[in-house]
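Input record, target 12 of the design panel.
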């Protein structure tokens, strides 16, 4: 596994954990902070940035009542699916919005007062 893939996997695991924490009834960043003996903003920033140590990951997973190995397995699946999704041949991102036209408008920029 290369460094980019490991980073993507770690981010996906942390993202899944963040979702589980948000879905757990009665769990707040403040309650997690009390268990971890740090302030709530630190917990929130770590979860949002993906900067979570292994110990922190297991503590949060235990508090959320979810299986940490199941979270890791889910993340591996998601990252694996992303890796095999077909990529556009022209390397452009897929969007549903039409791209703005690059056609140059005809005429000069002097306005209608000179056309008399």
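The sequence produced for target 12 reads:
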């Amino acid at each position: 596994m290369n460094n980019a893939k490991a980073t993507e996997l770690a981010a996906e695991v942390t993202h899944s954990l963040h979702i589980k924490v948000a879905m757990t009834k009665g769990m707040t960043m403040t309650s997690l902070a009390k268990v971890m003996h740090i302030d709530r903003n630190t917990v929130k920033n770590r979860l949002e940035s993906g900067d979570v140590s292994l110990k922190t990951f297991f503590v949060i997973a235990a508090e959320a009542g979810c299986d940490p190995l199941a979270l890791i397995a889910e993340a591996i699946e998601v990252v694996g699916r992303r890796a095999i999704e077909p990529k556009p041949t022209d390397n452009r991102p897929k969007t549903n919005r039409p791209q703005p036209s690059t056609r140059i408008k005809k005429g000069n920029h002097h306005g209608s007062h000179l056309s008399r």
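The radius of gyration is 24 Å.
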